[in-house]
Amino acid sequence: GENVEQHPSTLSVQEGDSAVIKCTYSDSASNYFPWYKQELGKGPQLIIDIRSNVGEKKDQRIAVTLNKTAKHFSLHITETQPEDSAVYFCAASQGNFNKFYFGSGTKLNVKP
Amino acid sequence: ETGVTQTPRHLVMGMTNKKSLKCEQHLGHNAMYWYKQSAKKPLELMFVYSLEERVENNSVPSRFSPECPNSSHLFLHLHTLQPEDSALYLCASSHGLVSSGDEQFFGPGTRLTVL
Lengths: 112, 115
Prior knowledge:
The structure holds two protein chains of two kinds. Chain A is mostly beta strands. In chain A, 0% of the residues lie in helices and 54% in strands. In chain A, the strands form two sheets. In chain A, strands 2, 4, 5, 9, 10 and 11 form a six-stranded mixed sheet that branches. In chain A, strands 1-3-8-7-6 form a five-stranded antiparallel sheet, with no helix packed on it. In chain A, strand 7 and strand 8 (72-77) form a beta hairpin. Chain A starts with a strand and ends with a strand. Chain B has strands at residues 4-7, 10-13, 18-25, 31-37, 44-50, 53-57, 64-70, 73-79, 87-94, 105-106, 110-114. The A-B interface holds A 4, 9, 32, 41-46, 89, 93, 95-98, 100-105 and B 2, 4, 31, 33, 40-43, 45, 48, 55-56, 58, 90-92, 97-99, 101, 103-109.
Protein backbone atom coordinates (compact mmCIF):
# COMPACT_ATOMS: atom_id res chain seq x y z
CA GLY A 1 0.00 0.00 0.00
CA GLU A 2 0.87 3.67 -0.08
CA ASN A 3 3.32 5.11 2.46
CA VAL A 4 3.21 8.87 3.07
CA GLU A 5 6.03 10.43 5.08
CA GLN A 6 5.85 14.00 6.32
CA HIS A 7 8.64 16.25 7.60
CA PRO A 8 9.30 18.00 9.84
CA SER A 9 7.11 16.88 12.73
CA THR A 10 7.43 20.30 14.33
CA LEU A 11 8.33 23.65 12.80
CA SER A 12 8.78 26.98 14.52
CA VAL A 13 9.10 30.20 12.51
CA GLN A 14 9.03 33.90 13.19
CA GLU A 15 6.00 35.85 12.06
CA GLY A 16 6.52 37.04 8.49
CA ASP A 17 8.91 34.24 7.59
CA SER A 18 8.07 31.40 5.21
CA ALA A 19 7.31 27.83 6.23
CA VAL A 20 7.80 24.72 4.12
CA ILE A 21 6.45 21.27 4.88
CA LYS A 22 7.43 18.29 2.76
CA CYS A 23 5.79 14.94 2.05
CA THR A 24 6.93 11.93 0.09
CA TYR A 25 4.80 9.10 -1.20
CA SER A 26 5.65 5.66 -2.45
CA ASP A 27 2.92 4.64 -4.92
CA SER A 28 3.29 6.19 -8.37
CA ALA A 29 -0.43 5.58 -8.95
CA SER A 30 -1.33 8.31 -6.45
CA ASN A 31 -2.76 11.28 -8.32
CA TYR A 32 -4.46 13.55 -5.77
CA PHE A 33 -2.63 15.37 -2.98
CA PRO A 34 -4.61 17.48 -0.49
CA TRP A 35 -3.31 19.45 2.47
CA TYR A 36 -5.30 19.90 5.67
CA LYS A 37 -4.99 22.35 8.56
CA GLN A 38 -6.14 21.24 12.02
CA GLU A 39 -6.51 23.85 14.71
CA LEU A 40 -6.75 22.95 18.37
CA GLY A 41 -10.11 21.40 19.21
CA LYS A 42 -11.22 21.21 15.60
CA GLY A 43 -11.22 18.68 12.81
CA PRO A 44 -8.90 18.92 9.78
CA GLN A 45 -9.90 21.44 7.12
CA LEU A 46 -8.84 21.29 3.48
CA ILE A 47 -6.68 24.30 2.62
CA ILE A 48 -5.31 23.42 -0.80
CA ASP A 49 -4.95 20.41 -3.07
CA ILE A 50 -3.15 19.47 -6.25
CA ARG A 51 -3.62 16.82 -8.89
CA SER A 52 -0.89 14.96 -10.70
CA ASN A 53 -1.39 16.78 -13.97
CA VAL A 54 -0.30 20.04 -12.33
CA GLY A 55 3.14 20.95 -10.95
CA GLU A 56 2.21 23.92 -8.80
CA LYS A 57 -0.87 25.59 -7.40
CA LYS A 58 -1.15 28.81 -5.45
CA ASP A 59 -3.87 30.37 -3.33
CA GLN A 60 -2.87 33.69 -1.78
CA ARG A 61 -0.13 32.95 0.80
CA ILE A 62 -0.33 29.19 0.34
CA ALA A 63 1.22 27.18 -2.47
CA VAL A 64 1.75 23.51 -3.15
CA THR A 65 4.33 22.00 -5.48
CA LEU A 66 4.41 18.47 -6.83
CA ASN A 67 7.34 16.52 -8.25
CA LYS A 68 5.91 13.30 -9.68
CA THR A 69 9.27 11.92 -10.71
CA ALA A 70 10.69 12.22 -7.22
CA LYS A 71 7.33 11.42 -5.62
CA HIS A 72 7.28 14.36 -3.30
CA PHE A 73 5.08 17.38 -2.74
CA SER A 74 5.44 20.40 -0.51
CA LEU A 75 3.33 23.04 1.19
CA HIS A 76 4.67 26.58 1.19
CA ILE A 77 3.25 29.29 3.44
CA THR A 78 4.61 32.79 2.92
CA GLU A 79 4.36 35.79 5.25
CA THR A 80 3.31 33.56 8.11
CA GLN A 81 0.95 34.91 10.75
CA PRO A 82 0.22 33.67 14.30
CA GLU A 83 -3.15 32.34 13.12
CA ASP A 84 -1.28 29.97 10.80
CA SER A 85 -0.21 28.06 13.93
CA ALA A 86 -1.81 24.62 13.70
CA VAL A 87 -1.08 21.02 12.71
CA TYR A 88 -0.83 20.47 8.97
CA PHE A 89 -1.45 17.10 7.29
CA CYS A 90 -0.63 15.99 3.80
CA ALA A 91 -2.40 13.12 2.09
CA ALA A 92 -2.09 11.07 -1.07
CA SER A 93 -4.86 9.31 -2.92
CA GLN A 94 -5.28 7.22 -6.02
CA GLY A 95 -8.72 8.64 -6.47
CA ASN A 96 -10.44 5.93 -4.44
CA PHE A 97 -12.05 6.68 -1.11
CA ASN A 98 -10.43 3.65 0.47
CA LYS A 99 -6.97 4.57 -0.78
CA PHE A 100 -6.55 7.87 1.00
CA TYR A 101 -3.34 7.99 3.03
CA PHE A 102 -2.36 10.73 5.46
CA GLY A 103 1.02 11.90 6.69
CA SER A 104 1.67 12.00 10.42
CA GLY A 105 1.34 15.79 10.66
CA THR A 106 3.51 18.86 11.21
CA LYS A 107 2.91 21.14 14.16
CA LEU A 108 3.61 24.70 12.97
CA ASN A 109 4.23 27.40 15.53
CA VAL A 110 4.40 30.99 14.29
CA LYS A 111 5.99 33.23 16.89
CA PRO A 112 4.78 36.83 17.00
CA GLU B 1 -18.35 25.63 11.71
CA THR B 2 -17.97 23.02 8.99
CA GLY B 3 -21.56 21.79 9.05
CA VAL B 4 -20.54 18.51 10.70
CA THR B 5 -21.26 18.12 14.41
CA GLN B 6 -20.15 15.37 16.76
CA THR B 7 -21.35 14.42 20.23
CA PRO B 8 -20.11 13.97 22.80
CA ARG B 9 -16.92 16.01 22.46
CA HIS B 10 -15.26 14.07 25.28
CA LEU B 11 -15.96 10.57 26.55
CA VAL B 12 -14.33 8.51 29.29
CA MET B 13 -15.37 4.89 29.51
CA GLY B 14 -14.33 1.66 31.16
CA MET B 15 -13.43 -1.41 29.16
CA THR B 16 -16.74 -3.09 29.96
CA ASN B 17 -18.95 -0.13 29.04
CA LYS B 18 -21.06 0.33 25.95
CA LYS B 19 -21.27 3.81 24.48
CA SER B 20 -22.07 5.44 21.15
CA LEU B 21 -20.58 8.35 19.25
CA LYS B 22 -22.89 10.46 17.11
CA CYS B 23 -22.19 12.47 14.00
CA GLU B 24 -24.62 14.70 12.14
CA GLN B 25 -24.04 16.62 8.92
CA HIS B 26 -26.17 19.53 7.76
CA LEU B 27 -24.66 19.78 4.29
CA GLY B 28 -26.86 17.45 2.29
CA HIS B 29 -23.92 15.15 1.63
CA ASN B 30 -24.25 11.53 0.56
CA ALA B 31 -21.04 10.05 1.97
CA MET B 32 -19.89 9.86 5.59
CA TYR B 33 -16.68 8.59 7.16
CA TRP B 34 -15.22 7.58 10.52
CA TYR B 35 -11.51 8.21 11.15
CA LYS B 36 -9.31 7.45 14.14
CA GLN B 37 -6.64 9.99 15.04
CA SER B 38 -3.97 8.85 17.49
CA ALA B 39 -1.14 11.03 18.75
CA LYS B 40 1.69 11.44 16.25
CA LYS B 41 0.15 8.90 13.88
CA PRO B 42 -1.57 9.39 10.52
CA LEU B 43 -5.33 9.53 10.37
CA GLU B 44 -6.74 6.05 9.93
CA LEU B 45 -9.85 5.57 7.84
CA MET B 46 -12.20 3.19 9.66
CA PHE B 47 -15.53 3.11 7.83
CA VAL B 48 -17.13 4.68 4.77
CA TYR B 49 -20.84 5.00 4.06
CA SER B 50 -22.33 6.06 0.77
CA LEU B 51 -26.08 6.62 0.53
CA GLU B 52 -26.47 4.86 3.89
CA GLU B 53 -24.68 1.73 2.76
CA ARG B 54 -21.33 0.71 4.17
CA VAL B 55 -18.84 0.58 1.35
CA GLU B 56 -15.62 0.19 3.30
CA ASN B 57 -14.47 -1.44 6.50
CA ASN B 58 -10.74 -1.04 6.92
CA SER B 59 -10.05 -4.12 9.04
CA VAL B 60 -11.55 -2.51 12.10
CA PRO B 61 -12.08 -4.74 15.17
CA SER B 62 -15.65 -5.81 15.78
CA ARG B 63 -15.75 -3.90 19.07
CA PHE B 64 -16.40 -0.89 16.83
CA SER B 65 -19.80 -1.07 15.14
CA PRO B 66 -20.98 1.70 12.77
CA GLU B 67 -24.56 2.57 11.96
CA CYS B 68 -25.94 4.94 9.35
CA PRO B 69 -29.74 5.24 9.72
CA ASN B 70 -29.97 8.03 7.12
CA SER B 71 -27.68 10.16 5.04
CA SER B 72 -27.43 12.86 7.74
CA HIS B 73 -26.52 10.72 10.73
CA LEU B 74 -23.69 8.34 11.50
CA PHE B 75 -23.06 6.47 14.73
CA LEU B 76 -20.13 4.51 16.08
CA HIS B 77 -21.14 2.01 18.74
CA LEU B 78 -18.42 1.02 21.14
CA HIS B 79 -18.21 -2.04 23.40
CA THR B 80 -15.49 -3.80 25.37
CA LEU B 81 -12.85 -1.37 24.18
CA GLN B 82 -9.17 -1.51 25.05
CA PRO B 83 -6.97 1.30 26.43
CA GLU B 84 -5.17 1.48 23.06
CA ASP B 85 -8.48 2.55 21.51
CA SER B 86 -8.13 5.89 23.26
CA ALA B 87 -7.92 8.50 20.50
CA LEU B 88 -9.73 11.31 18.75
CA TYR B 89 -12.52 9.93 16.56
CA LEU B 90 -13.34 12.13 13.62
CA CYS B 91 -16.41 12.06 11.46
CA ALA B 92 -16.36 13.53 7.94
CA SER B 93 -18.77 13.91 5.07
CA SER B 94 -18.54 14.68 1.38
CA HIS B 95 -21.02 15.28 -1.41
CA GLY B 96 -19.93 12.15 -3.20
CA LEU B 97 -17.18 9.70 -2.44
CA VAL B 98 -13.73 11.23 -2.18
CA SER B 99 -12.82 9.33 -5.30
CA SER B 100 -14.80 11.86 -7.27
CA GLY B 101 -12.66 14.66 -5.93
CA ASP B 102 -15.24 15.99 -3.49
CA GLU B 103 -13.85 17.76 -0.45
CA GLN B 104 -14.28 16.06 2.91
CA PHE B 105 -15.66 18.21 5.71
CA PHE B 106 -14.59 17.08 9.16
CA GLY B 107 -16.35 17.41 12.48
CA PRO B 108 -14.47 18.52 15.62
CA GLY B 109 -14.08 14.96 16.85
CA THR B 110 -14.82 13.02 20.03
CA ARG B 111 -11.89 12.63 22.41
CA LEU B 112 -12.24 9.09 23.76
CA THR B 113 -10.39 7.79 26.79
CA VAL B 114 -10.66 4.12 27.71
CA LEU B 115 -9.66 3.30 31.26
